[in-house]
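Consider the following assembly input.
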Amino acid sequence: ELKVEQNPLFLSMQEGKNYTIYCNYSTTSDRLYWYRQDPGKSLESLFVLLSNGAVKQEGRLMASLDTKARLSTLHITAAVHDLSATYFCAAFTGGGNKLTFGTGTQLKVEL
Amino acid sequence: NAGVMQNPRHLVRRRGQEARLRCSPMKGHSHVYWYRQLPEEGLKFMVYLQKENIIDESGMPKERFSAEFPKEGPSILRIQQVVRGDSAAYFCASSPQTGDEQYFGPGTRLTVT
């Protein structure tokens, strides 16, 4: 059974600082997603990573995938308050046609 | 192109009542997925349906929960005799084909009093 673990669970950081969220998954996965969720809202798709070594960037966020280590990272550069949200990674298994989500990282960027 | 629609957005039920959650997939999508998010947790897969068929219900509780996706109309997640532990946000997602990216709806937040 595929398991996905994220760390840290909570992250409080100051504006302007850099940090990385880690996502480990236990078995082979076809692709890896990162989502953002604001309180009381649905999930916003940020990135989909398809292959080993994939790197995608959008603004202050950059995601990467290492399929050999079964590890994905979400790097935040020069954080701003607007990035405060909960971030989830999710691994997709084509055989199961379902997403397995991590527990989420609650990010709070202090002004 | 309208996104995935769910209604109601908020639902309050007393213990023992039934809850019906509706999901209309994006236009052209025939695959629907239901996920549940308990407070302070990630989403957990419940069931995957295509029109008129349940493909994978491995995440559904064995009792009180059922899902359908009829030929016409929205997908329905039905919870009978709700208990306080059923309080959660229920998200529906849809995709055009199996294996494609899933697009999430706004969710239904169920509160059982």
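Residues 9 and 108 of chain B are 4 Å apart (CA to CA). Ask yourself how this observation constrains the way the partners meet.
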